[in-house]
Amino acid sequence: MTEHPISFERPQPGVDPADPRGALLHTPTPAPTTPSAALPAQARTGETPSTPGTAHPCDKDMGKGTDPATPAGGSEHSQPAVAEQDNHRPRPAPEGIPAQPGAEQTGLQSSGGSERRTGQGLPPGRPTPMRRDGDRLRFVGAATRRIARGIDLDEIVMGLCRATVPTFSDAILVYLRDPLPVGDERPTGPLLLRLRRTDRIPAERDSEAGFTPALQPEPAEVTELDTLGAELCEVRPGSALAEVLRGVRPVFTDAPAARAALPELLGEGCEFSVPGGQRAILAPLRGRRRVIGAALFLRRPERIAFEPDDLLVAAQLATHSALGIDKAVLYGREAYIADELQRTMLPETLPRPTGVRLASRYLPAAETARVGGDWYDAIPLPGSRVALVVGDVMGHSMTSAAIMGQLRTTAQTLAGLDLPPQEVLHHLDEQAQRLGTDRMATCLYAVYDPVSHRITIANAGHPPPVLLHLGGRAEVLRVPPGAPIGVGGVDFEAVELDAPAGATLLLYTDGLVESRLRDVWTGIEQLREKLAAVAQLTGPDHPPPLEALCDEVLDMLGPGDRDDDIALLAARFDGIAPSDVAYWFLEPEDAAPGRARRLARRALSRWGMEDMSDSVELLVSEVVTNAVRYASRPVTLRLLRTDVLRCEVGDDVPQLPRLRQARATDEGGRGLYLVNKLARRWGATRLSTGKVVWFELNRN
Prior knowledge:
Blueprint: H1 20-24, H2 80-85, H3 103-106, H4 133-148, H5 153-164, E1 171-177, E2 191-200, E3 204-207, E4 210-213, H6 219-226, E5 232-235, H7 240-247, E6 251-252, H8 256-266, E7 280-286, E8 291-298, H9 308-345, E9 356-363, E10 374-380, E11 386-393, H10 398-416, H11 421-435, E12 441-449, E13 454-460, E14 466-468, E15 474-476, E16 494-498, E17 504-508, H12 520-538, H13 546-554, E18 566-573, E19 581-586, H14 592-606, H15 613-630, E20 635-641, E21 644-651, H16 671-678, E22 681-687, E23 690-698
Antiparallel strand pairs: 1-2, 1-8, 2-5, 3-4, 6-7, 7-8, 9-18, 10-11, 11-12, 12-13, 13-16, 14-15, 14-17, 17-18, 19-20, 20-21, 21-23, 22-23
Helix pairs in contact: 4-5, 4-9, 5-9, 7-8, 9-10, 10-11, 14-15, 15-16
């Protein structure tokens, strides 16, 4: 395969190396000056487009053409005198072709003074068609810059279409492999090309007075370019299209091989809609390893045909687009992996514990950094409690996300052991040190008890939480700051605070309150003021909805406030009223199950739930019987009335009961089987002092 680089040509003598034009042009061999045909311009009066010779057009040098105004001794960039005469030429616009001075005198317009694309006259100062090789180079430079700006697949393909239409062609069809191979993957199955995007000149025309409606073309002309192109085509091995794609180089469609490949690419019959002559170029798109598609450049019959040098332009556009598509596919795979990693590291859904409502948000640091070290979690605990966790690992990379996942898993395991918050942070600190010496993180761990309406908080270098009271007052809780996780050799302290019903606790990471424009304490104060302002909108007796509150909090972020990823966890404390709780101690004796049934019957009668007495008494009796059989200390029995009826039985034996299928000759072993059949949910949790077995029943 022959490559056609655009940035490794020999610089010109006497030209500034920083000038991109001088770095791209060859020094032409002195030759007699002959008027060269234009690239996308109309034909001169009395001229016919040049035809390619026996050599392949792509082997020609883009700098060998001469301008009519250039002396025969060399190019405009090789003669200092000529450069001085042309030093007032305006610099090219980034995305267009520059206006040529004196175009009216040099005959750059077609016969009759009409503009090539629209058929109307060119007003003074309008860009003229590309007549020289310098224009081609400037067009290729502007087009490749536009293509290179894309970061994903659609942006790159759209950049190719917008850069070529209408400057280079009147229409373009871009076909890409389906599916696109990623990196070094070897594609399996047949080679399928899918039409990814088309673009064409819109049905308007420019005039001096502005846009005017174009004259409607004949119906046959509308059908030709507007309906051209099949949605999907299969490239059969050994076919004409396969040979053209294997050749890599762009070709004119009037060549026999390309003409035979058009029906396979566009569909049977559509090849007759392609303009005749050299008005269509089929350019394969080859990435780093293989051909990944094809681009078809088209010009209408009323426009001048392509020239042999235009194949070089098409080759450069195809090469840059294919390499960009390769990189975009790799970037898309990386982004997909990052998204999946972040999604699996964070909770898919939040639990619905008794007495508390939860809402959360997560925002990555930027679109190009979709993973980070921030996390949040809500873990149900025995006794209807819930652990609220938020943490932040330094950085927002794949490594930070991996460390975050390990710390989050460790926190969940420690929470299942019902350890105090300060002990959880201590073990997290040890785990971070085992992961590495530079694994630093901040974390805040809180445990809410809806029965006692209290919350216990331990902090490891994390920003303090904000509590929004029911009346609208917002306060920053005073919790011991502590040292970050991973420092080692430090102690963590826990503080117990009131958590009144109707209050909202907001846990967050520093990305919400700290940025280049403000320090962390200024951001915390702004957050407190924002929460108070939102609470005023709903009144003193109605707390704001959690989801809307999270959205309002994120709205405080300004354009320059996204320096880090953000994790946000909001908890609304509903609590459980004392009248909805019944609690007893039972001695581990044979009479305990009977006493438990009587106590449960009285509580249900007091709550007006007598219709549930039979099932509740049966299940309470079975669970209490298992507890007193092995317990050496008093057994606890608690009934909670919320949207469901929850029963909890605790003892001092750490072994958890297991559900098993009793045999017909067994005298026991059916208690948990009955609980599993009759209860809505049930479970067993190990505590530091024993275990708790619980079950829930739907209220009738």
